[in-house]
Specification:
heterodimer, A: about 190 residues, alpha+beta, 3-stranded mixed β-sheet, two-stranded antiparallel sheet, globular, B: about 130 residues, 4-stranded antiparallel β-sheet, two-stranded antiparallel ribbon, 9 strands
């Protein structure tokens, strides 16, 4: 047996021009969440509890694209999704289209533990959340001013984007001057790092 | 998208992924994150969480593929992750984090960067973006 191990991620496709202060903010958040997981492992919590605990923390912080700080739909609303899987017996739970559940990963865990199914979506997931008594909030809790701005940019570009936060100087005219890398057919500068 | 993978001191693996999806997406769009086998997978061999171009991750069944090549091709965790990112992404950009039941931990991405942090009981720790 090799001992415990943990990894955390906050998303891929980072703008290479991400400002230093944003990089530092990201690394501080990742480090904090990693330490939460390490403490839980040292307390002998099982793996399934640790992953839920860490992802809840990431969902609550608005920096990355999950929970609070989620990307917006074309209508300016938030629709979140999450999944969780326990490798010991391959039980799993997933939710999609949740709009008022504060921590979607915990709802996914409840689907796994408390329902006869593996995946619930939209109104069924919301109804299950009410039955389970999970913490629920208004949809605008998840919406940040940064993301409202990004949606505006996306609509102007008539594109669907990864939700990455970018400094304004990395898009628009500045991006045109330095030919950008491309991802998903679009210049990297229109993507905001998560 | 955010995710976490863990192997505990009993050798049990688990994975979780959560996301708001794509900016300006259609209402009702479902990505890879809630799809078991695509964005998230865990079994008795490993646990994987993916992030990136969701449609490419779905096409490649990325998370399950890591476990499958370990199981059927006998690759170790790093070899499996390298193989999947290198060969199974179909020109898409993505990354993943993974742990094995033996206590290994790794990440790999073919995008410009990926926000990630890893640690192991032997004292290894890394936090990175690029």
């Amino acid at each position: 047996m090799g001992g415990w191990a943990i990894a955390v991620h906050g998303g891929a496709g980072v703008d290479p021009n991400l400002p230093k202060d944003r990089q530092e903010q990201a690394t501080r958040l990742l480090t904090r969440c990693l330490q939460i997981g390490i403490s839980a492992l040292r307390s002998s919590l099982p793996a399934i509890d640790v992953v839920e605990l860490v992802v809840r923390e990431l969902e609550t912080d608005p920096f990355f694209n999950s929970g609070r700080g989620s990307a917006l739909t074309e209508k300016g609303t938030v629709e979140m999704e999450a999944s969780i899987m326990d490798g010991a017996d391959r039980r799993c739970g997933a939710v999609s289209g949740v709009t008022t559940v504060k921590n979607p990963v915990s709802l996914a865990r409840l689907v796994m533990d408390k329902s006869p199914h593996s995946y619930l979506a939209f109104s069924g997931a919301e109804e299950f959340a009410k039955q389970m008594g999970v913490e629920m909030v208004e949809n605008d809790y998840f919406i940040t001013s940064d993301n409202v701005g990004m949606l505006k940019l996306a609509k102007e570009a008539n594109s669907i984007l990864f939700d990455y936060r970018i400094p304004l100087e990395s898009c628009g005219a500045a991006a045109v001057e330095n030919p950008p890398l491309h991802m998903n057919g679009l210049p990297i500068s229109v993507y905001a790092p998560e | 998208t955010v995710g976490c993978v863990v192997v505990d001191s009993q050798g049990h693996c688990a994975a979780a992924t959560s996301t708001g999806g794509l900016m300006n997406k259609m209402v009702g769009r479902i990505g890879d994150s809630p799809l078991i086998g695509s964005g998230t997978y865990a079994c008795d061999i490993c646990a994987v969480s993916c992030t990136g171009e969701g449609e490419a991750i779905i096409r490649g069944t990325l998370a399950r593929d890591v476990a499958a090549v370990m199981e059927y091709k006998g690759l170790d965790l790093q070899e499996a992750v390298d193989f999947v990112i290198g060969k199974r992404l179909d020109k898409g950009k993505a990354g993943l984090i993974a742990v094995s039941s033996k206590g290994e931990v790794t990440c790999r991405f073919n995008s410009v960067g990926m926000f990630r942090a890893c640690a192991a009981e032997d004292g290894y720790m890394e936090v990175g973006i690029w």
